[in-house]
Amino acid sequence: MLYLWIKALHIMAIISWMAAMLYLPRLFVYHCDAPVGSQQSETFKTMEFKLYRYISSPAMMVAWIAGLFLAWDAGWFTQGWFHAKLLLVLVLSGVHGVQGKWLKAFARDERPHKARFFRIMNEVPALLMVGIVLLVVLKPF
Question: What is the 3-state secondary structure (H, E, C) of the chain?
Answer without folding.
Answer: CHHHHHHHHHHHHHHHHHHHHHHHHHHHHHHHHCCCCCHHHHHHHHHHHHHHHHHHHHHHHHHHHHHHHHHHHHCHHHCHHHHHHHHHHHHHHHHHHHHHHHHHHHHCCCCCCCHHHHHHHCCHHHHHHHHHHHHHHHCCC
